[in-house]
Amino acid sequence: MVAVDQRGYGRSSKYRVQKAYRIKELVGDVLGVVDAYGADKAFVIGHDWGAPVAWTFAWLYPQRCAGVVGISVPFAGRGVIGLPGSPFGEHRPNDYHLELAGEGRVWYQDYFSAQDGIIAEIEEDVRTWLLGLTYTVSGDGMIAATKAAADAGVDLASMDPIDVIRAGPLCMADGARLKDAFVYPETMPAWFTDADLDFYTGEFERSGFGGPLSFYHNIDNDWHDLADQEGKPLSAPALFIGGQYDVGTTWGAEAIARAHEVMSDYRGTHMVADVGHWIQQEAPDETNRLLLEFLGGLRQ
């Protein structure tokens, strides 16, 4: 088993030019790792931005992929990240993000893409910002937000998905900061300790945020770069693992429901109860069970 820091993160290479973070470059890194280990094929598993990279590797190089698992973010074709009304990149991201956010609001992916504002916001206090983001989109944070909405007479489950996005913590009023909507734990949860937070803080303070944010900057470029793949199915054995309260899973509900239309060997969707975005941290035993079950089934 090999776990890598993607380019721009951790101890992997950093590039000054944003085009170095386009999806085909990221997929090329995966292919390079597989080649470096002398393997003909690999099982590829990814979470968050790792999921679109894993999916796209399987899509572009089916002959090199023995199986693929996406966690949190479902396969979205040329769209890279599935959204309500554009599950597989039916709309150009740069245009659709503006429509999705609504008048006077900014979708966080565009805020990240612009870089300057978000970097200034984060660098005011990297540790506190990371804690706020991590907890806000966790199961603990999202369950509390859902309960608060219910207490105010708002049933999020019955709302239009786009309205949920506009009301959520990742869609901001013009001029606002992302962290204005963060919530923080009274005590650190078992799945995210002070030691974990210290480690991630140290890594990001050392490596910076330009690389990771460039993933978002290139979503529109990725949509263009993958145009020639449109209509081609993902043929490798595939599994999706989502979280009941995960924002990525919620946005991707349409892509999840229609996964069988775009993947010819789709082995199913597994939703982990009571967890948010950090599925493998919040529910490690269940995540490992699902992965081992999937991998074991392919080897029989």
Automatic annotation (TrEMBL):
Signal sequence range: none
Record bears the keyword Hydrolase: yes
Domain of life: Bacteria
Residue ranges annotated for the AB hydrolase-1 domain, each copy included: 2-73
Transmembrane stretches, start-end: none
UniProt entry tagged with the keyword ATP-binding: no
Keywords assigned: Hydrolase
GO molecular function terms listed in the Swiss-Prot or TrEMBL record: hydrolase activity
Name of the molecule in the record: Epoxide hydrolase
